[in-house]
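Structure request: Response regulator transcription factor, Microbacterium tenebrionis.
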Amino acid sequence: MSDPIRVLLVDDHAMLRAGFRTILDSQADITVVGEAATGAEAVAQASALRPDVVSMDVQMPDMDGIEATRRIVADPEVHASIAIVTTFDRDDYLFSALDAGASGFLLKNSSPEDLVSAVRVLAAGDGMLAPEVTRRVVQRYASSPREGQATPVSASVELAEPFTDREAEVLALMAEAMSNAEIAARLFIGEATVKTHVSRILHKLGARDRVQAVVLALRGGLA
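Returned structure:
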């Protein structure tokens, strides 16, 4: 049996952290290894505990979750995937989080099953965005920025090598928030083959996960 997924909970509300801990610790394959109430504590705890996944709030005292995400992702000794978990469904939070390096975005009114699923997906090395969030990402990055509009992710994308036709097809379906199983069914290929294509796409884009791959591809006009 593999080791359980190690999770760090970051939120300034102790009651919410307790609720998340109860949900996650009830799963045999997940264990909460620590908690933090501020962004600064989150950075320190991530460095000390080396979690696999961080559930990160946005609005906190001392340092917000966006800056904490940026610092954790920048630490070469920490290899944690970060899910932003917030009450506020705001585009500025979403795109700032993606720019900072978050791999997931979840609202606090999501179901316990969604939280558990997000932890497992991120621990597996995949990104996780709700379908409605994905649509906003596609709309934002697929269109040319207006003059003066900020571009959270650089439009300059240099591929390690060109995509094959099949990789381009897989990337387009990734941009529709399809899972590997859904992509396999759409293209009539095996799921293992899809995983191989996804891995090659990430390598060619220099992306850490599916979310960043889609964002980079859309901004660079590659999907």
